[in-house]
Prior knowledge:
The chain is of the alpha/beta class. The protein is built from 16 helices and 19 strands.
Amino acid sequence: MFDRELIRKYNVPGPRYTSYPTVPYWEPETFTKDNWLESVRSSFDDSNESEGISLYIHLPFCESLCTFCGCHKHITKRHSLESPYIKAVLKEWETYRNLFGGRARIKELHLGGGTPTFFSPEHLKTLIEGIFDHAELCSDPLLSFEAHPNNTTLEHLQVLYDLGFRRNSFGIQDYNPIVQKAINRIQTFDSVKEVTELSREVGYTSVSHDLVFGLPFQTMDAIKDTIEKTASIRPDRIAFYSYAHVPWIKGTGQRGYNDDDLPSNAGKRALYEFGKEQFLELGYKEIGMDHFALPSDDLSTSMFNRELHRNFMGYTSSKTRLLIGLGMSSISDSWLGFSQNVKTVSEYEQLAMAGEIPVFRGHLLNDEDLIVRRHILDLMCQFETNFADSKERFPELEACLSKLGEMEKDGLVARAGDELKVLEKGRPFVRNVCMAIDLRLHRKAPKTQVFSMTI
């Protein structure tokens, strides 16, 4: 199924490419808030009428710390924090609306976390209605939310469905009790089955389960059991994520176990290859990197139609030029630039309620960035790209492509004229392929490890 020598050769630290340039290579010295806001205005004018805009709302609260998680979150059991946070998010949305100079048309909205279902159904309704009161929905909008199986109620599902949400995703990770204890994420199969079935009864058309391979104490038997249980529920989508071991990043909680408790490199890859084989046999289509979907799901349709897109929310079936991130630590994308909000709840609420865009860093893309970004997006979404257009080339292109020589010999990629394709054997190494044309990575290789391992 896989070649241990290839894993040894290519398992190096590398970006996941939810953006280009990747966050460590943003240039804060050339970024100003005024220039960022100007790029937002420009993108809004270009995209609002034709395709609409996307919103990502970060709801950061969790009642307990999952020790595998590398996301920005705020651990608390104080639900009194919900209301002031929602007021701050709606105030930030008001500040952006005043900048737009027109009524926003929303194509896509995603609630991420943290744990969005930490919030009560009533507060979620207040939040979404506050967003929609000053915007319009495009035809066939894509509204989705992340949820914890243990605290997602029928009321949560019904309220969000009534507001137009049709897709949700549940974080499962692994059903093995030893693994669950190690990552402090304990939930039963029965609770997952119940909330999945409730979603379908309410009317959700796409239910996703997030699984993770490479977790501490995870074995082949554990993966087999998890996949068997998942198959019995048959979610519309499965995200089969590689555990990103980044204990040096503050706040991950990933120091609760030792490196020796993790599967070996080859063992981790074996877990993925087994999972992939099972998902394909079950009728799922492989989507980009680490994702699988039933043929009926719009993620499969978008990949078949070459419309698949990737951004800070992961893979999505639609692309908008403007993505506004609201809430603590959210990242926005104007296509011409990126910005990230401040990373603490208190600072975020203070700035947002004062009517300020709570951005603390960002990057404005130059012409070269835009070219490289397009190729990396094509590779991550379609496993191929083309350099025939002279406007899509850059001076170092041939030097970059020459770095793929070893991967060509290993049967991972193929070049034919101006076309570059990632072959079936090379799909697990797509991050490595993208690294070959990552100009910023070449020019300033990190001196310490800032990325997770690619395999």
